[in-house]
Amino acid sequence: MDYVSTDKAHIAIELKKYQWDYIHDPQPMLFAWAEEEEEGKLIATKDKDSISVKIEKFNADFAPGFEKLEIQYLLGEKTMNIIKKYPNEKFYFYITIANREGKIIYNKQEKPKEKGEFTWDGINHEKNDTIKIDNGPYNIALTLIGGEEKGWFEDWKTFKDKLYTTFHNDSVLQIVKSIDTTFNVNPVRLEWIGNKDMQKYVNNSYEYYLKLRDLYMEYEGIKKAGNPFEYLKNNTKEIEFLGRKIRVHNEFAIVLQKVEETLKAEGVYNELQEKYKNDKTLYGLSMREINDPNGKDKLSEHAFGLAIDINTKKNPQIHKERALVRYFIKKSTGFDIGEKKTIEQIKNAHTKFLELYKNTDISKIVIKYKEICNYNKDTGTIKIENLQDYNNRLESLHKLIGKTLIELNDSINKENIFKSIEIELDNNLSKVDRLNKILENYENIVIFKETSKLEL
Question: Are 291 and 301 a contacting pair, CB within 8 Å?
Answer without folding.
Answer: no
